[in-house]
Amino acid sequence: MSEMKIGVIGTGAIGQTHIERINTKLQGARVIACADPNADFCKSIAEKFSLKAYDDPKDMINADDIEAVVVTAADNFHEEYVLAAIEAGKYVFCEKPLAPESNACRKIVDAEIAGGKQLVQVGFMRRYDPGYRQLKELIDSGDYGAPLMLHCAHRNPEVSGFTTEMSVENSLIHEIDVLRWLLGENYETAEVVFPRTTRNAEGELRDPQIMYLTTESGIRIDVESFVNCKYGYDIKCEVVCEEGTLTLPEPANVMKRVDAARVTPICRDWSERFVDAYNIEFQEWINACKEGRVDGPTAWDGYVGQVTAAAASKARDAQSVMTIEFDEKPAFYN
Amino acid sequence: MSEMKIGVIGTGAIGQTHIERINTKLQGARVIACADPNADFCKSIAEKFSLKAYDDPKDMINADDIEAVVVTAADNFHEEYVLAAIEAGKYVFCEKPLAPESNACRKIVDAEIAGGKQLVQVGFMRRYDPGYRQLKELIDSGDYGAPLMLHCAHRNPEVSGFTTEMSVENSLIHEIDVLRWLLGENYETAEVVFPRTTRNAEGELRDPQIMYLTTESGIRIDVESFVNCKYGYDIKCEVVCEEGTLTLPEPANVMKRVDAARVTPICRDWSERFVDAYNIEFQEWINACKEGRVDGPTAWDGYVGQVTAAAASKARDAQSVMTIEFDEKPAFYN
Amino acid sequence: MSEMKIGVIGTGAIGQTHIERINTKLQGARVIACADPNADFCKSIAEKFSLKAYDDPKDMINADDIEAVVVTAADNFHEEYVLAAIEAGKYVFCEKPLAPESNACRKIVDAEIAGGKQLVQVGFMRRYDPGYRQLKELIDSGDYGAPLMLHCAHRNPEVSGFTTEMSVENSLIHEIDVLRWLLGENYETAEVVFPRTTRNAEGELRDPQIMYLTTESGIRIDVESFVNCKYGYDIKCEVVCEEGTLTLPEPANVMKRVDAARVTPICRDWSERFVDAYNIEFQEWINACKEGRVDGPTAWDGYVGQVTAAAASKARDAQSVMTIEFDEKPAFYN
Amino acid sequence: MSEMKIGVIGTGAIGQTHIERINTKLQGARVIACADPNADFCKSIAEKFSLKAYDDPKDMINADDIEAVVVTAADNFHEEYVLAAIEAGKYVFCEKPLAPESNACRKIVDAEIAGGKQLVQVGFMRRYDPGYRQLKELIDSGDYGAPLMLHCAHRNPEVSGFTTEMSVENSLIHEIDVLRWLLGENYETAEVVFPRTTRNAEGELRDPQIMYLTTESGIRIDVESFVNCKYGYDIKCEVVCEEGTLTLPEPANVMKRVDAARVTPICRDWSERFVDAYNIEFQEWINACKEGRVDGPTAWDGYVGQVTAAAASKARDAQSVMTIEFDEKPAFYN
């Protein structure tokens, strides 16, 4: 079967990573073009990877030889390009968030439904991490009873230029998606509290934060966001079920016995921690598109994620519990 | 140095354990008498351990040859016997709670102060667990910065005759004491929430529960209480500090490779999990009494524990955050 | 760059796995033909994967459109097909062993040298396992001093139709290659001893066995081979260095707390344990061939492996230590 | 029951540790006297612990108020004092080795048998370590089938003034005893090999060494002795059985997440690693003596240990396998 031809919008670090991934590691597709508002930079990247450069992403979206689009542009432009791809009837993989505002996400959902075909996938790569997949399989087996509580943490060694708002919007959005997928049910309430702030937080930043979520069946989730934890990039998830608990595995690293200790390395950044997840995510996306379907996180998932994040942000600003109100799920996504 | 002579009030399971512990495992003291409202049963236990039996605990407290008293009677009787011991000028080790009501605890505190000498120790044995002691030493070293969050769990395999109230009062009271000791600061607020209830909870019992505590410096604590977790007796405590996290160790057990898994046993009950803590607690109590002092959890700690538990109970009933109000700490306890 | 066209010799289980791997998971190559002495079976596999079927593997090797060959035929046929590929000037990936007899391996080495170009790679996939690669990187860093001892185990849950000879030749051959690669030096002596035999060994089989190897610099290696260990497929490697030890990581699996134990799954077979290693091995082989070189285990490595295995087999039969004699390494392989 | 009165021979570091242990931590006994060839030093220790000092250990052994003796004198004097204790009909706890020469051990055995009562216990404290006890219980359960192989290591961070001979005689003697106890059967052969020597070994010292032992039923044991491993004091024992393996637990220490790693401390010396074992060993010895029996390692165990160590030493010097010849076990010890 011939390779699916892809155009990438946004040629920054993430965009380049995806170009390299698709063109040197994965199978069945090829990035043949790229587009970026910064025309000169776009040209340099196009040369580096032997791609065709477009000044206007929409021209690329509408080009005859482009079958699918990857959107890694700045968040504010996601809506415009995803809608253009839908209009052109092309598959579109959009990095999270689908759009910063939930009503923009809703607009995308409506456009996709109007077009009559699922074309949009959102880049929630955690669902492809082998550890989370094991967790989901074990939960779904029913062998441990219903999940009752989730205790999670999302820690970065350090960040700069980070604001209090970004903990929910940039970090915890990953947990918002992956935990809902893991549990197979929607959230009902959100709350965000501020523990004592670390001396390592810059300026006005409140770090760490803890987000509490509850689900329709009453499952209670706590997720710590700690973006200046100093020690490493660390993702924890413990699922407490009625007859046992399940813990997300640590990455497999060599254990050293040295300096009066057993020492096992922890990752320093997300790209190292989730490299397998990214590869699997894109390979499965390519495979599904070539079979004429989307089987990853949908536009609806993108909408639900942003509604939840918005409620959590409101809860954080108000320092009180917020009820989360979703539109009814369209039958289109069942 | 001669052995300290001890009388034990309450000859139930716990009382017998302590008699056996002091008389066959520890050094420097001897239980020579016991007292219990159930006179016949008391006599049978006295015979078993070759002790003198008293019908009235107060007679035993006031007996000339008794130097120290251990109170393991029903909670409601703690106040009466502890006050009697203070009046008799004798050391008294009282199982938690010091008294169910915080004003009863305060009365004991006042009596002890009036007596002019510290005589009371409360049975919060977690402070003697080698793992918690390691945690405290590491926190106090300052090498990891200030603690910001504590994530804890207190799980029992199953219970019967347990009520929703007992999660705070019987289970979480241990964390209330040990975490305050670990951090060296008082609590400010308490909250108790109800996750989805396990199908394994009897009757009206809400199980699991999560208690949230905040401290004076803003440290935020979550403690899961899950008394029907089914899988084992399990105590978890992770201290998230500014430059690293510290995790309470698992008990040292043989790891088996069997049946396609690495399998390491978990305890089934608290007496197994904390056997070392109990031994160390009583040995250190005996040693301190013989040197004329009390160096374990004081009557004031007992008071603070009950005030905190009362606030958490109120918070649970009201399903809202409660501020915790303590009396000012008397200089007597500094 | 166009896809490298591959023909696979041997359409049994392993052959099919490689066809599927190359054609659905990896990039840059495509299996377009297969050959097997069992012509009917070969045809059915060819149909299944839409390949061209050849009755005679040599016809396929010499076909104009075939650029590289994968040999998964029965061990005895390896020599013939690898030599044919060398003669045809085509890259050839040969499953281990390169050939059962070391003089056959030597013949391949000589043919390759005579041809003037490295074309042969041997399927020692352990070198591609991420855990072993971490070990090698840490050893090579020199941070832990020189390796002094290696303690290893290679365990299978159970086997049937296995003979005492096969422990060295089929199982331990993997350690023979990967440990030499890890240490970067040759072996000097081999010994094989028989511990107490498990009641689960069939017939005359001696199981477990332990192979001892020493290297040029005096490093001492013990490798347990236990093919009926019952509990799972388990690979262990501890490298004891002058200033620390390094342990091969366990696969990353969910830890469950259930039934009074912490339980982490162990694989049941090698294909699950080394699936990543196989994928990386073939992708790197494809990439290297397309760049005109071989950078995996060479024909010389295949020769050295068989010489070592032969010495170990002799040592086992004689129940004494054998010195291992290698030809001098041809400059061609430096 | 009154306290058993003990005299300690040898007032060096170990002797003092035992005096302090018995007099401040354990129950049912009291050290009341000490003896040491260095009379002045002996007096100073006697004063420190309020003991009676004896110039001649035999006077102390024969003193009316001494009921039991602990021998921690230099190895060469063990025989003389143990025999004197047997003659005096007093319980004697002798630190390992019972005597450096196996025929001296045999002499003690014969004297004890002639005396008609078991009085001697040898200080092999590993049998009292809770981890080894768990191992023994699991092996004896039969749930995992027969043991087939043991893989062990005994590592010290560093030593000075150590000779090649001492690895067997001072370090591995502990494994010689505890593994035989664990398995419940005698050894048949011993061998000691020299891996590459660490650059951290002083002078002519060969370090590390590996001892191989086989047992009557064919179980094969490897024990690494590495006295300059640099990283810590570390004891490993893996028992490979027919249907599973069992691993000696690591000490329970806080795990830290810090500096991009999970870090769990390892002990730095044996006294820290085996402090519980020593306490249990002496408490059980006291309890047994007071009940009129010896239930720890016997004089016969001391004899068997030295015979095995002598064979291992001979095997090391000859660099070949030695068969171990024991006298027949006297019925007295069944």
Strand line-up across the major sheet of chain A: 12-11-7-10-9-8-15
Structural class of chain A: alpha/beta
Largest interface: A-B, 35 and 34 residues
Q: For the record, what CATH class of the largest domain in chain A applies?
A: Alpha Beta
Largest sheet of chain A: 7 strands, mixed
Q: How large, in whole angstroms, is the Cα Rg of chain A?
A: 20 Å
Order of helices and strands of chain A: EHEHEHEHEHEHEHEEEEEEEHHHE
What distance separates the N and C termini of chain A? 29 Å
Q: What is the CATH topology descriptor of the largest domain in chain A?
A: Rossmann fold
Poorly predicted segments of chain A? none
Write a brief structural summary:
The structure is a homotetramer of 334-residue chains. By secondary structure, the first copy, chain A, is α/β, with parallel strands linked by helices. Helices cover 37% and strands 25% of the residues of chain A.
Keywords:
homotetramer, alpha/beta, globular, 7-stranded mixed beta sheet, Dihydrodipicolinate Reductase, domain 2, Rossmann fold, 15 strands, EC 1.1.1.18 (chains A, B, C, D), 6-stranded parallel beta sheet, 334 residues, Gfo-Idh-MocA_inositol_DH (chains A, B, C, D)
What does this structure look like?
4 copies of one chain form a homotetramer. Chain A has 334 residues and is an alpha/beta fold. Chain A folds into 2 domains: 4-126 and 277-305, NAD(P)-binding Rossmann-like Domain (Rossmann fold, 3-Layer(aba) Sandwich), CATH 3.40.50.720; 130-268, 2-Layer Sandwich (Dihydrodipicolinate Reductase, domain 2). Helix content of chain A is 37%, strand content 25%. Chain A has 10 helices and 15 strands. Chain A has helices at residues 13-24, 39-49, 57-62, 78-88, 102-115, 130-141, 166-183, 270-273, 275-290, 299-318, and strands at 4-9, 29-35, 52-54, 68-71, 91-95, 120-123, 147-155, 187-193, 209-215, 220-226, 234-241, 244-247, 255-258, 261-265, 322-323. In chain A, strand 2 (29-35), helix 2 and strand 3 form a beta-alpha-beta unit. In chain A, helix 4 packs parallel to helix 5 (102-115), helix 5 (102-115) packs antiparallel against helix 10 and helix 7 (166-183) crosses helix 10. The longest helix of chain A has 20 residues, at 299-318. The radius of gyration of chain A is 20 Å and the shape is globular. The two termini of chain A are 29 Å apart. The mean pLDDT of chain A is 96. Chains in contact: A-B, A-C, A-D, B-C, B-D, C-D. Strand 12 of chain B pairs antiparallel with strand 13 (255-258) of chain D.
